[in-house]
Amino acid sequence: MIPFEHIMILSAAIFLLGLIGLFVRKDALTLLVCMGLLIMAVGVLWIAVAKSFGEMLGQGVVLAIIATAFVQGCVGVMLILKLQVHKPSLQVKQFTELKG
Amino acid sequence: MRVELFYLIAILCLFFSLGAVFSTKVVTSLFCFLGCVLTVTLLFVLLQASAIAVIYMLLFCLLVSIYWVTAIVFLPKPNKNAYSKHFLHVGVFLLLGGWLLFVLLPFLQVPAFSPAEIDHGFGSARHLVNVLFGPLRHLWYALLALILAFLISVPVLIRDNTKCGDLS
User: Fold this and answer.
1) Which residues 28-47 of chain B have a CB within 8 Å of chain A?
2) Percentage of residues in chain A with pLDDT exceeding 90?
3) Class in CATH terms, A11-90
């Protein structure tokens, strides 16, 4: 039996790494990867909670989270490619103005 | 065996997460993220969520491929061909690795990895469908109604030429 606390620690560690990455890194794709890590950590925690309570609905929530994360990633990539027309760079520092 | 396997997967996952966050090259970061996705998939199977694991792996591998192609778009010309080849190598590695994993998993003698458990046990696709479309069917009907309402309202929104704040 895997201790629930250990899964929580793993989830917290992944979440913390993702959060640090969001604040430290400056290129757009790595920021998307960090957001993916955050969502992954939450998913792991939901699955662990669902298993420890013997409740299947938690896995349904993870399904919704995964779908949202996928859409978020696709929209992020689309925005990056759209911004590429103006400045061919992945550095988010270069995109400080939101002119239409 | 099961607990030891969990610790192995956890260490690998943390290692890949560290790589994904702190690696200086975007392509290495994406490769580490892919490793992270695969280890978390194994973790999901170990925690008896095999249906979610399959959906997660498929969607996130697709997402990493999209990120990879985007990264290649931004690379300078001389590196582009090299990274395109790199992308192909990773694809072949993933196919072979996935096939090997599929063949080797039952030999690990972990109950959660047995084909019977993945097909019929807690968290299997059958179980998930039964739960989601059983007691929660009203939620799905409501969601369907919401999607239909959205689809109907989109043409109206597109045809609407009024500017923001112009309510006269």
Assistant:
1) 29-30, 33, 36-37, 40, 43-44, 46-47
2) 40
3) mainly alpha
Check CB contact of B59 with chain A, cutoff 8 Å: yes
Where is pLDDT greater, at B38 or B99?
Answer: B38
pLDDT digits (tens, 9 = 90+) for B11-33: 999 999 999 999 888 888 888 89
**Which A residues in the span 53-92 are in contact with B, Cβ-Cβ below 8 Å?**
54, 56-57, 59-60, 62-63, 66-67, 69-70, 73-74, 77, 80-81, 84, 88-90
> Cα dihedral sign for A28, A12, A53, B57?
positive
- Start-to-end CA distance of chain A, whole Å, equals 55
Give the Å distances, CA to CA, from B129 to A50, B135, B142, B152: 16, 11, 17, 28
Identify whether residues B136 and B154 lie together within a single domain.
yes
Q: What's the distance, CA A83 to chain centroid?
A: 21
Same domain, B21 and B100: yes
Q: Can you give the residue range of the structural domain that contains B130?
A: 124-160
Residue A53's pLDDT band, with cuts at 50, 70 and 90, is confident
ipTM computed for the complex: 0.90
